[in-house]
Amino acid sequence: MMMRIILDKMNTNTIPTWNLSSIFTDFNSDEYIEMFKCFGSNIKKIESMVEKGPSNDKKILETELSAIMKLYNETGSIHEELFSYAYCSYSVDTSDPAALTEVNRIEETAVGFSTAAVRLRNYLADAPNLNEVIENSSYLKQFSFFFEEQLMLKDKQMSPEMEDLASDLARSGSGSWERLQQTLSSSVQIVWDEETGETKTAVELRAFADNEDEEIRRKAFEKELELWKRIEVPMAFALNGVKGASNSVNKRRNFTSTLERSALQARISSQTLDAMITAMTESLPIFRRYLKLKAELLGKDKLAFYDLFAPVGTGHKIFSYDEAADFIVKQFSNFSRELGDFARQAVDNEWIDAKPRKNKVGGAYCTGFHVSGVSRVLCNFNGSFNALSTIAHELGHAYHNQILKDAPETYRDFPMTLAETASIFCETIVLESALGSAEVDEKLSLIEHELMESTQIIVDILSRFIFEKNLFDKRIDRELSAKELCGMMIDAQKQTYGEAMDEKQMHPYMWAVKGHYYHQELGFYNFPYAFGKLFGLGLYSLYRSEGAAFTEKYKDILYMTGNASAEDVTKAAGYDITSKDFWLSSIKMLEARVDQFEELCRNRK
């Protein structure tokens, strides 16, 4: 595997791990224990305050609601602080039982916080003269969007007792189906080497997707399909259970469909969603052209699914961690001194855990600590430009947290659609710089990698959207068999990848691979990633036209993300996302990359 080859060429002792001691020394520290107690007691106080109902007196209502909001924001910040610390501890050592215990304990306590939010919505709906009280209070007025959204959600929720029951049942019902998918996909094994008896899990087999050797990629793909075939029945039951529960609960919450709820969670209108999906569909020929060019480079007429992540080009530069960090800081500083200084602070103050090691989770993430006013970034650095780009991406999230450092906790509750804004923007900064100084073959690799990821975000995510919409519609009437699910997935892939992919070499079990399908509260997890990518590119295009003047506007946009609809946030940037023209303009930037890629391919021959 490429990652292993690169790591063999590096001194992994120079790759850092993070420092969490500035937040808490451990789970037994007085500070941690006291904060956990405060979390529980705050929840009970909020419940008590809202259960007695709002006052008819405007002055008293203002005083009471102000006290509720101060406590609500404080409790949200405490929740973030505790959970981030526990999950950071767990994710670097999944064998640590104490960390897992704390993650579960915090989640269990947080159910009460969700219940308090349900009761707060009822309190607001019953409050007389609420708008007048909010308008005349300088403190409450800053939460106008929050109040408006809570009142809208009030009409989309069951009674507090039913919501309590739904939460409890989800933990033992759909939550169990989700854990079944996680357990089976990470533990069930198949023989990889007949001579030695070596076995691989599905996760390990998928790690071969970017191997330079086609035979290894093909073997891993076929073994993976064989493994999924063995466990398709329990996986199908799990998926049916989750989607059935989503349909039932969301119907009782007065949603016309789970898609309606997902759009509400994403803070976008159905018009915006339709415009984006239409633009993505119209852009498919652009990405199919790229896929055909990649097939040519690999000596094929069409790609197999196991070729999607195959590396092309030979210009793969290897970075030490310090070189990667310095490169990121320099390019961020070219955008703004503030962004560059922030990245240097994160590097120097040990905010980043980049060293791959046993019992550490894969992938990457950024999490914030609102009480402490800091962030932490986890990644698995392997010296590639992709790994460098991942650090830049996660530092974008951290900078987003920094912009909201002094804002109320409710301002940090931005939707998935806007959560990727800063990360995609920062990722684009370092890519553009790298392309500017790259040699021809390295440039080919860099552009291909961006197109490979963009194809996943546009083409593959569109296939997942089509599949999931079809699944939710059919699940209303009955459960679906594994054979039917596979057929629906292949059909969705045919609609998006089209003639660029060999229809006999598609992946029928992607419904089993993607764990997001099994999370009841997160239906249609897919389209927010496409939104984030295309909006991030739109912002970068704005930066190219406005230059240094854009930096303050950029900060203002990030500050808005948790306190406005996605339409209003993007309007502040001068965009109308209800029109497909905006989405097509961002896709034009990716089309230009395909043109560059084609030119490099032709010159290479």
Q: Can you put this structure into words, describing what you see?
A:
By secondary structure, this protein is mainly alpha-helical. The protein has a domain at 30-162: Butyryl-CoA Dehydrogenase, subunit A, domain 3 (Up-down Bundle). 67% of the residues lie in helices and 3% in strands. It has 27 helices and 5 strands. The strands form 2 sheets. Strands 3-5-4 form a 3-stranded mixed sheet. A hairpin with a 4-residue loop joins β4 (365-369) and β5 (374-378). α3 packs antiparallel against α4 and α21 packs across α27 (580-604). Residues 1-9 have low confidence and may be disordered.
Structural class: mainly alpha
Measured as a percent range, the helix fraction is: 55-70%
Helical stretch count? Answer: 27
Low-confidence stretches: 1-9
Q: Compute the CA-based radius of gyration.
A: 25 Å
Strand order of the largest sheet: 3-5-4
Q: State mean pLDDT (0 to 100 scale).
A: 91
Beta content: under 5%
CA-CA gap between termini? 27 Å
Predict the CATH topology of the domain at 30-162.
Butyryl-CoA Dehydrogenase, subunit A, domain 3
What summary fits the major beta sheet? 3 strands, mixed
Q: How many beta-strand runs? A: 5
